[in-house]
Design a protein that fits this description.
Length: 375
């Protein structure tokens, strides 16, 4: 048996090698390394795929979040609601812009922002909410959008882990993750479901004026070269990465289907297990399964993790420390116990290998090894 990977990018590349190599060579042949035609081609293709009216590419997913907040005119001192249990980038850009992150707890079995707590978090200074579609399925967007409309708040979807996931509203409308709020953001980090071979990111919006503004901000605040209308940043998706993403986008549905097959097998294997709580699936969202994240109950997660490593099975903890307990955000005055669900999850969650080219025998070995630990 070959070495088991959390994400097997090499095997994925091998299957599309000819397409990727040709795309890369095409960029090299034209030497259009910055803003080459492949960037626009990819933006248009991703808009067609997601249903977003406009897709604006940028340098990475963190930039996408920052540019979105700049585009929505968030001002220093204003407040933005963000889950306490997520990757740091979501809160990081809020702090970088002089805004105040207002943390909210999450739901224990779905990992999504707890909408029941929203009223207690909003103030006259609140301007936005950042729902994070963590691990691959959509947050309760219908409720979040209704709350935002009631309080005149902007919604920025962090869909870095859920691209391709579909959300169904109560009236039957179906929209993709990232296309429902004022702005959606995503990352093309290599391990993402739609990943490039370096850094990359994008923003989605259905607002034409906002799309133009986001595009300007990402390009030094200019609409016309050397004419800078607003303060911007330098954040570009380079042409080589766009060419690679053009290829991989065509395979994204297959990738999602493969991930769901792996998740289904894990679900079946661990159903009813007293020490392993599989991730809950919400009824109104499909799941992209960027991660398959279980919760370990009644035993030491670290002992299980070490045991798996000894047996050649990788695993990861996403995330070991909630945002309100990170040293960088201690000055906000939160303390242990303020967000009990997030704090509990940080002690229990464990992500298992899941990727597009998972071999049946590898997954069977992973499952047998995990069960062997408890036996």
């Amino acid at each position: 048996m070959s070495s088991i990977q959390m994400v097997d990018l090499k095997s994925q590349y091998d299957l599309i090698k000819a397409e990727v190599d040709q795309a890369i060579q095409g960029v090299i042949d034209t030497t259009s390394f910055i803003n080459g035609p492949q960037v626009k081609e990819f933006s248009n293709a991703l808009a067609d795929y997601t249903g977003a009216r406009y897709v604006i590419t940028c340098g990475n997913g963190t930039d996408a979040l920052q540019i979105a907040m700049m585009g929505l005119d968030f001002q220093p001192g204003q407040e933005v609601i963000v889950p306490a249990f997520t990757y740091v980038a979501t809160a990081e850009v809020i702090a970088l812009l002089g805004l105040k992150p207002v943390f909210i707890d999450v739901i224990a079995d779905t990992y999504e922002l707890d909408i029941a707590q929203l009223e207690s978090k909003v103030s006259s200074n609140t301007v936005g909410i950042v729902p994070v579609h963590l691990y691959g399925q959509c947050s309760n967007m219908e409720a979040i959008l209704a709350f935002a409309k009631k309080h005149n708040l902007k919604v920025i979807e962090d869909t870095a882990q859920a691209i391709g996931a579909k959300y169904t509203f109560s009236d039957g409308r179906v929209m993709q993750a990232g296309t429902m709020g004022d702005v959606g953001t995503t990352s093309f980090f290599p391990s993402k479901n739609l990943g490039c071979y370096g850094d990359g990111g994008a923003m989605f919006t259905n607002n034409e004026a906002l799309a133009e503004k986001l595009r300007m901000i990402a390009n030094h605040g200019q609409k016309k070269k050397y004419h800078h209308h607003i303060v911007g940043v330098n954040s570009r998706l380079d042409t080589l990465q766009a060419a690679i993403l053009n290829v991989k986008l065509k395979h994204l549905d297959r990738y999602s289907a493969s991930r769901n097959e792996v998740a289904d097998k894990y679900d079946e294997a661990f159903a009813g297990h007293k020490n392993i709580k599989s991730p809950a699936r919400v009824p109104n969202s499909t799941h992209a399964f960027h991660q398959y994240t279980v919760q370990i109950e009644g035993v030491s997660r670290e002992e299980l993790k070490s045991y798996l490593a000894e047996k050649g099975v990788p695993s990861m903890v996403y995330y070991p420390v909630p945002l309100h307990q990170q040293e960088a955000y201690m000055d906000l005055g939160f303390k242990k116990g303020d967000f009990p669900v997030a704090e509990s999850l940080c002690l229990k969650v464990l992500s298992l290998p899941i990727h597009t080219e998972m071999k049946v025998e590898d997954q069977e070995y992973i499952i047998e090894t995990i069960k062997g630990f408890f036996a």
